[in-house]
Amino acid sequence: MKTKEILKKFLQALGVIAIALVFVGLGNWQLDRAALVKELNAAAKVIDPKIYSLSDLAAPTVALDSRNVNKQVAVSGFYISNFKAPLQSDKDGVVSDWEVALLQVDGSGPLSGILVVRGLWADRLLNPDIAMSTRIELVGTMQPHQNDDRAENVPGVISRLDSSVIVGQANLQLYDGFIVAQSEATRNGELIRTRVVAEAPVSRVAGYYWQHISYVAIWWLMAAIVLYLPFYRRKAGKEAIGLPL
User: Does 105 share its domain with 32?
Assistant: First the structure.
């Protein structure tokens, strides 16, 4: 009988320790995720000097890998439509209207396209010789699509920089995200105009970091409660029958 009680207590202790270890493991997992988020935030601020081809960083109809955000990309093709993107904010917080073009990308596969921020909407008439038949070679930075509308979607205007808002306007396979042009050139030379630099797309990462840290504290607290609970029940039981603690 005594052996059964010892075995029962041993199994109960083993179960408590196992549950506590699970909670500790979940806390460590959240801690690792918090560290990864912090690393991604820091990495997003590092400028990669290499210029990649668009196919190296993205593919049509596939979500943009966050590791490729802010990388420089070179691509060529033809502008097939222009849009006004109102109330856009640059890296200095200056709000203005931007000119955005849909670039039909050169390539041997299915027809594809990506949104390109060319510059300020006020400068859209600086290059009147640009037509749909003009081949453009550009270098810019990859950016993720925007989630929040800045305006209403009406003809010639896009509510946010996101290919999903123009999916019905072109018979192309569209890339996720967009390119902010740093330079554009035709066979006649470089197109000179004021360029914009988009605000950093990682402003909310810090919040996610601290959210993961709070989860770490919660899981570890649960582990402490699980370990303390058997002693609390034992103490409560002794108090109920009047035994010394």
Answer: no
